[in-house]
Automatic annotation (TrEMBL):
One of its GO terms (molecular function) is lipid binding. Keywords: Lipid-binding. It comes from Modestobacter roseus. The keyword Transmembrane helix does not apply. It comes from the Bacteria. The keyword Zinc does not apply. Gene3D superfamilies: 3.30.1180.10, 3.40.50.10170. This is DegV family protein with EDD domain.
């Protein structure tokens, strides 16, 4: 049985990994300066960062349509796949998972399995990688889906933003929490738990924030082999500092991906955001 793996553009997987493992990526839409475009191809991270840096700048996002997923699923199934496993951004943060679920119903739920990763960025991406590697090894659709579930449940996502205002505007965090962060002039450390963005702690400086992200990653890793990812929006130097500290502090780090957030997630976290995702299910031989 051949199993195809699908995800959405917010997984922010390295392009070479997507190509190598044959992962199909369905893009979200981003609305910027009155025009709507597909994340990654039509609207770039740099455009979003510039728009949000301007006072009153506003960027919105929308999910792929069920029709986008139907087209993708049918193409894969007619192209030789027997089954499709589709793994997506948290349903608490986006309607993407719901659009995929609706599409699966139209194509045939016995042919398409849709999973909510309950996470974002490489918190979703690592689950997709686990699924794609299981599929490449000849796993059944059930085995591929289970690999994704286990990795999604184990992975942890932590990030810091310069302001909570962008998350508040997009409805991803409450107004009270956003106001508190602004009023106290703190750097909020957040995490994704049960599919939602939740404040974790507050620190006073960017350097302290990076230190806390590293410490959180170390706590998740323990003495196990891990994979990790560093994300940022318009903060490459901050991201590289975080990556270097992770290389130093995680002796069993098996793989590390560093990438800029795309437009869809970047619109909600804003310029200056930096984060880390840790996957403790990495195999010792990876």
């Amino acid at each position: 049985m051949s199993v195809a793996v699908v995800t959405d553009s917010t997984a922010y997987l390295p392009a070479e990994v997507v190509a190598e493992l044959g992962i199909e990526v369905v893009p979200l839409y981003v609305v910027l300066a009155g025009r709507s475009g597909r994340e990654g191809s039509d609207v770039t991270s740099a455009e979003v960062a510039r728009a949000l840096s301007v006072r009153g700048g506003h960027v919105t996002t929308s999910r792929p349509t069920p029709g986008d997923f139907v087209t993708t699923y049918r193409r894969l199934l007619t192209g030789g796949a027997d089954r499709v496993v589709s793994v997506h951004l948290s349903g608490e943060l986006s309607g993407t998972w719901d659009a995929a679920r609706v599409a699966a119903g139209q194509v045939g739920e016995h042919l398409v399995t849709v999973l909510d990763s309950r996470s974002a960025a490489m918190g979703n991406g690592f689950a997709v990688l686990a699924a794609a590697r299981a599929a490449a090894a000849g796993g059944s659709a059930e085995q591929v889906a289970q690999a994704a579930r286990e990795t999604a449940a184990a992975s942890r996502t932590f990030f810091v933003v310069d302001t909570l205002e962008h998350l508040r505007r997009g409805g991803r965090i409450g107004s009270a929490a956003a106001w508190l962060g602004t009023a106290l002039a703190v750097k909020p450390v957040l995490h994704v738990t049960d599919g939602r963005v939740v404040p974790l702690e507050k620190v006073r400086t960017s350097a302290r924030a990076i230190s806390r992200l590293v410490q959180r990653a170390v706590e998740v890793a323990g003495d196990r082999p891990v994979a990790a990812a560093v994300h940022h929006l318009a903060a490459p130097e901050r991201a590289e500092r975080l990556a270097e500290q992770l290389r130093d502090r995680l002796p069993q780090l098996r793989e590390l991906h560093v990438s800029e957030l795309g437009a869809a997630v970047g619109a909600h976290v804003g310029p200056g955001a930096v984060g880390v995702v840790v996957d403790p299910t990495a195999r010792a031989e990876d």
